[in-house]
Structures are given as C-alpha cells and as structure tokens.
Design brief:
The chain is mainly β. The protein has four domains: 86 residues, no CATH class; 202 residues, Jelly Rolls (Sandwich), CATH 2.60.120.200; 183 residues, Rossmann fold (3-Layer(aba) Sandwich), CATH 3.40.50; 175 residues, Jelly Rolls (Sandwich). Strands 10-9-11-12-8-30-17-14-15 form a nine-stranded mixed beta sheet, covered by helices on one side. Strands 3, 5, 6, 32, 35, 39 and 41 form a seven-stranded antiparallel beta sheet that branches. Strands 4, 33, 34, 36, 37, 38 and 40 form a seven-stranded antiparallel beta sheet that branches.
Length: 703
Amino acid sequence: MLSSFCRSFSTGLVARRALATRAMAVAVSGFVWSTQAQELIYQEGFNTDGEAANPQRYTTRGRDVWELSRIFGDPPLATASAQRGPIYFAHSFEVSFVGIPNIPARRMMFTWRGSNDTANTTEDFLKLWDSAVAWLLNGKANATVMVYPTTASIGGLADRLAATGHTVLDDDPAKTDAQLESDGDLFIHAGSTDPSRYALLKKPVIVNVSPDWDDMIVGSIGSDATFAPGQVNIAAPGHPAAGGKTGSFDAFTGDHAFALAGRFLPQGSTTLATVNRTIPPQVARLTDVDDMIAGTKQHEKTEGTLATLDINDASAGNWFDDNAVPGGYTGNWGLRVQGKLAASAAGTYRFAMGTDDGARFQIDLDKNGFTAADNVIEDLGPHGHTIVYQNVTFAAAGTYDFEVRAYNSGGGGSFELSVGVVPAAEVLDDALDSGYWELLGTPGGVSPVQLSAPATATGYIATGASTETKEPLVVLLNGPNDTPPGGFYGGGPFINVEGAGFFGGAGMNKFPYQDETPPRMLTLRPVNVAGKQDVKLTVAVAAAQIDFENDANDYLDIKIYPNGANSTPITLAHFNGVESGVQPWMADDLDNNQRRLTREFADFTYNVPATATDLIVEFVAGSSWWNEILAFDNVRITAGSKAIEAKFKTPRLQGDKVTLEWTGSGLLQRSTNLKDWTDVTGATSGREVTVVPGDHVFYRIKQ
C-alpha cells in the first residue's frame, strides 16, 4: 500500500527526474516510491512554547532570559557583569540573537605583550605598530585611544601612541561598554579580569591577552610564552597595515613575552606579520605523553616508585607529601603511574584527581586491559591545579589495575589522586580537607579503596632537535564595510533549523537557578513506545565552536527514562568541550568525541532499550560564558527499520537492449503514462529491457 505522503509528490517528482530519450524510448525514474517502513511516533520542534501549551508538551527547570538591558539594569546582575551578549536557557524566539554576532568594526590581535620594554625593540617594529594602528583607525589622526585596564598595561606602546599624536586614556570601570563607546576612537583590551571588555564595540579594538582571544571572539584561546624571538616576517606585503614593509627584519633583542595565538583564527582573517620562534623539545599536551610511552616521540625517562600519589613541582595541591617527578624533572614533563587498587568491598566510591596541567585516570574494572572504556577521569588541560571528581563502581571486592598519565607543559606542575573514606553516597563534602577524603597511599588509610603497594612511577622529558615556527605577531580582522567583509571567529547565527525555533542556552551558570539549585533541564512528556520494535531517538544538536572548556561547566546531556519518571535514567550522550584551548568545540564524550558540534544543526540518533514503555527524554545543559552557546531541535522518536533508499544507476544501452541497475531494495515497476504502474515480477538489478521504437516506458522502484 502506497503511503499518502509519497502519493502527494509522485507525479511532479517522477516527471522531473525521469531519464527519457527518444532514441531509447525508455525512461527510468530516479524517484523512490516508499511505504516509509519507519514509523514516526513523536516529534517536537520547539517552534512554539510547549511548556505553555495545554496539555504541556514539556517542562523546564531554570528557564530564563537575561538580555544586556536586564543584566546591567537596576539593580545589575553582579554574577553576569562580564557578559557581553544575552545569557539564557530558552527558546530561540525568546532571545534577541542566538549565535556569534557579526563583527561590528575592525579588530587586531597583537601578540607582543605590552609588559615588554619597547627599548628592546627596533624602530622597524614600532613603525609596523604605527601602520597597523593607522589601518584600524582608517587613517584618523589625533585619535583617542582607551586601554583596559590602564595605559600602564601596554607600557611603551602607550608612549608610542602619544608620540604619534594620539591621546591615550585609562579604561573607566564605572561605565559599561555601551556607555564608554563614544569616549574613544580605538580601544585596546590588555587585561583579563573582564575577559570580554570591548568585545562588541562598534569601534576598532586591539586584543593583547592570550586567555581572552576566545572571549573577545578573535580566535581560539592561546597561551603565554617568553622566548628570544628571531626576525619578524611580513606575511601580507601590500596590505595597507604593513606600511609598505616587505620581507623580514630584526625587531627584538633579548627575551620577550608573547600572548601566542591559539590553534584557530577566524576564517578570512589576515596574518599581517609573524615572528620566528625556536622551540626546544617539549611536552605540550597529554597526547605527547601517550606518544612517548608508545615510543613515537623522542624522549628520556626515569622510573621510580610512589608510596603516596602526590607530585609537587612548584605547584602546591591539597596534600603535603610533595613527591618529586622521577628523574627530578621540572617545568616540562610527562608522568606515568601504574599500580593496583584494593577494594575491600563491592560498592561505589568517589575519587578526586588534582593536576597542573592535566591527566587521564583509568581503572581496569573489567580486567581485560586498558581501553577508552576504562577512563575514569580525562582532564586534558592545560590549567593550574584543578580537581576533577568521579564516582566509580566496583562490582566485587578485589584488586584492580590502574594507570594515570599526567603532564606539565611549563611552569609549576602537580598531580594528586584522592579517594573518599566512605562510600560515594556518604561523601557529603568534596573539599579534600573536610574529613571525607584521604590521599591514596596514606599510611593507616581507612578508605575502602587503598593503594595495595607502592605504585610504579615513570617520569618523561622530550628530547631531540629544536624546531623553528613562525608565530602570528599581528592578525587583522576586516570590519563589516571592508572588502571582503570580516567576521568574528565562529561568527553567524545557527543554521539548518527545523522550523521557527529551537531550544538553547548560553552563560547558564551566570544567572540564578530555579530554587538556587542547578542544573537547567528540559523534560519532554512521556511517550508510549510499549510493544514497538527498533525504537530510536533522533535529536538535531548544534553549538558554537569557540570557547568550550573540558570541565564540569560546559555540557549537554541527553538522557532518557525508559519506563517513566521513576525508572533508572540512561545517559545517551554527554557533549562537552573536547580539549580546552586546543579542541574548543563540543563533542559526545560517550562516543569518543568523534563528531564535533557546529552552528549547523546535525542529527544524532540513539537506540532506545527494547523494554521501554513510557519513554521520557530529558536535556540537561550548562555553559559558563555568553558565547558558549549550545542548542537542540527537532526531537523525533521512531520505530521500525528505515528502508535503504533505492537509487538507479545510469542505464546502459547496447543495441536494442537497456540494462537497468539500482542500489537498495524494492520492487521494479513500469508504466507507459506515469499513472498506471505494474510490477515487473522477479526483477533484480541488472534487468534487461528491450527498446521498442516509438514507445515510451517509465520505470521506478517501489519500497
């Protein structure tokens, strides 16, 4: 039986897609007439307010919208004072704009830090600064330049601006961005206390702080480094901001501090100049430790033991054992800790891992060797000493292999692994000095989980030849009226929306929670799927790609309650930031981060347990900044297998024979008038038909 959906489209599509020629006298329809074996049980597109509907289609917790006028109203929302766009958990049609805004004026990343001494630079370098500033100002002379937080933040560059006729002012912290926009012609963001200060001003802005590239929407988060730079290279000769300079020139003497650009720059941006940097062998991220252990990265290593799991390399944690990295390595190193944990009883226990810069903690709970499934905590960093918590269930008493891989990319480094002294449900305070915690390996420890013996610890340092890179020194972003128009990093609205709206959130930890209790969630009404086969949940998901960190603040969980609200929930997806500053997009941690989210909605499909009856779908979300935006749309619950679409290949004509070939399954049908169709019994791909001069025959696949 043909579905009414297909019948309503049949004539037009067949007529448009038929491949007919007079010579062949045969037409093959590319249209597939399908019975749609997959049943659509339920669909929610968030195109109207389902919470206000009667009956309700869903309920929310923590839903709200804070536009800038409300954030900076009377009284202002102190927790959101650094936000520069709307923050919300709401329908898209309730918010002024969902996405990264269009760029309002020219922007420049200047990576040489203003804390350096201009006395150790050359006149060629300072003239490059002059010409870049002139381009930002579109040639305006005697401009007013405002610096956040103060003119002292850019040191001798402020003197250079004054020497070229500009007036340089300190930022006015009493004013909002909107209030001070008319106070200057050019604004310089050179401090990180207010990470998005000047971000959306309709005036040119220079950014000079690596942690804020993302919050200022000019690139992904960067890092700080001090080194003896080589020559400066003009990467865009002929650009007016280069001031006529070409080639390379000497610019510095001695060591200088740089706010290095991150891995990603805005599409269409112009790298005006680079600076040569010689990099000695280093451990920059957790995967470098993996590579050294695998033998694919040149290294030196030293093996030792740890009686207690506490490493302190000039970065104090919460415990006081303060062991050294084996080999005495400092500043830049990798670490591998291997040993056994003894669980005195089956149960769920709580672990806390503190690191500077990051680590991966695994327990071989299934005792079949270490795989990604054994990850307990994966904190990719980099960051200062940070604690991440996780509950672990031991199915039985006994000993279990564990492994930790940690790293320090520079400066101070640390590693500590702690465990609750009581089962996880009884740990009432996550503060490590609360009495509920002890360091693994502590003599006389009372936790049900203990270090069974001193652990093997191996320290690693990278060795080999140094490499030379060209680091961006000046990066330019065109304004909206330039040719071509510029754009912010990741800029633009969310696209591929199903209908008139979707549901999303941004800066969700910056405004009050319902009953002052997180998280924020949306819960769909129960859907009866009892007795249905092959039930699946499909959700369209999207997110900005600029600023998500790998921490507990940035996430989107998709959960189901398969048998009503009192059944045990199942988490189908846990989207979070993949790697802070390195892979700042969101991906599903439960799917090994294989598919990143973009601002274009994309479908994700999940299997629902066969025993499901009253299926409830729930979304739980969080993010910590106004440009950390995530969204979900077009929720569909289906049953049955989706037919594989049949498609004709190009027909082959030989003599008076035409060979019809197709992919997929279905029944071949023929017609002489596109109205009356008959089955071609027993036909399979490769079917030969005879061409009769003067006749017109059409073929299609019915599924």
